[in-house]
């Protein structure tokens, strides 16, 4: 039975016992960790995407996405506390629901990490190109701009996005890691940039810019929530710190809810500043009956005629908004902050992807060369090169919105599986020690799974088709290779021969 191929939880925990983790994190440290991990790409990059889907109603979208993240985080924290080893949702699924589900989760995590890194690369490109234009005081010629945008956005190839992805790949091959000091500095830069934006944009708000509040109805708000879910996914940094938390039953909820609440407040104030300062109404077709699909060639064509009159057409929404209300130099500083901070997010996304591949290869589900380590740098260089090239290719040709939606599809699927796994394990192994237990499990876990499903079906139809197509490819790969070569399969064969 495929679903019977469960990797024993006790065997997984043996790995964790080899390295004891010191419980040193309190509620404050967890909250700060969450804020640093959550605030980043989504709010800098996807504000314009959300505005095109929901208009001013994107403020509600941030709340919906935060609520789904919140209930999913509690489930994630319980599993992370019990299984504090590499592999994230893939490992949790392997221990509870078997090999096939674990494979599907691991395959989906490729979308979460690799495609997310591509989305961040495109976002970085938009801010850096915009900064160059404003520092030089002139727009780049059309012959140059076509090499800073993908085909969906009216260009040929996004070379800056591909460049930053390849640069980060080369750093990871050499084993470069962010130091604690560098990470702290980047967190300060991000929070300072958003605080400065709020301080300058809120006083410039005009109440008429909030009407109509939901031009595309609640379906538009839901679609925007599904897209900007991307802005919250860093919350799992708090969940995975459960094993290093003092009094986790008390401090984990404080850290999870606290970081999500503070970040949601930041996001709502930022979105209010954008909406009230410059307006955030969607761009409609010529008949003004249908909003143009975000990230489409039709949207790119409309934006080329609108020039700089709509925030939804901007590749650097926050910097653009400040320039429009008269803060040109501060807008440039916001773009500079994004230019410094976003590459660290790309690094962590590619790093996470390579480690998922590494663990799956070590389990025998992927060929062994994926786990091959560089003789000099001691890093999994083959899978890092493959991931880096894929990220560079995606970022060179696809717009940020489409990439974020695809990434969200993989993330939502993985999080839903974790919520189900927590509930299943409460039945199959109720006496196992749980350093952190999800409160009201029979309410929280179903809400997490249903919330993820709700956002999943709110994604664009094209995204869902791509996700299911990717899943079919993954199943083919599994049955052609992983099913026969996994470590569990080989152990079963050995036992039968014996």
Descriptive notes:
It is found in: Membrane. By secondary structure, the protein is an all-alpha fold. It has one domain (about 10-490): Amino acid/polyamine transporter I (Up-down Bundle). It is about 70% helix and about 0% strand. It has 21 helices and no strands. The chain has helices at about 10-15, 25-40, 40-45, 45-55, 60-80, 90-95, 100-135, 140-145, 160-175, 180-200, 215-230, 235-240, 250-280, 295-305, 315-325, 330-360, 380-395, 400-430, 440-455, 460-485, 485-495. Helix 5 (about 60-80) packs across helix 11, helix 5 crosses helix 18 and helix 7 crosses helix 17. The longest helix has about 40 residues, at about 100-135.
Short précis:
This protein has one domain (9-489): Up-down Bundle (Amino acid/polyamine transporter I), CATH 1.20.1740. The protein has 21 helices and no strands. With 498 residues, the chain is an all-alpha fold.
List key phrases describing it.
mainly alpha, globular, 498 residues, membrane, 21 helices, Amino acid/polyamine transporter I, AA/rel_permease1, single chain, amino acid transmembrane transporter activity
* pLDDT averaged over residues: 84
Describe the largest sheet.
Answer: none
Strand proportion, as a percent range, falls in under 5%
Element-level helix/strand string? HHHHHHHHHHHHHHHHHHHHH
Number of domains: 1
CATH architecture: Up-down Bundle
The number of distinct β-strands equals 0
Distance between the termini: 20 Å
Uncertain segments? 493-498
Classification by helices and strands? mainly alpha
- Kindly report the name of the CATH homologous superfamily: Amino acid/polyamine transporter I
Tell me, briefly, the overall form: globular
Total helical elements: 21
Q: Indicate the CATH class.
A: Mainly Alpha
**C-alpha Rg, in Å?**
22 Å
DSSP helix fraction: 55-70%
- The CATH topology is given as Amino acid/polyamine transporter I
